[in-house]
Amino acid sequence: MKHEIIISGFGGQGVLSMGKILAYSGLMEGKEVTWMPAYGPEQRGGTANVTVIVSDERISSPILSKYDIAIVLNQPSLDKFQPKVKPGGILIYDSYGIINPPTRKDIKVYSISAMDKAAEMKNSKIFNMIVLGGMLSVCPVVTNEGLEKALYKTLPERHHGLIPLNMEAVKAGGEIMELK
Question: Rounded distance, CA 73 to CA 128, Å?
Answer without folding.
Answer: 10
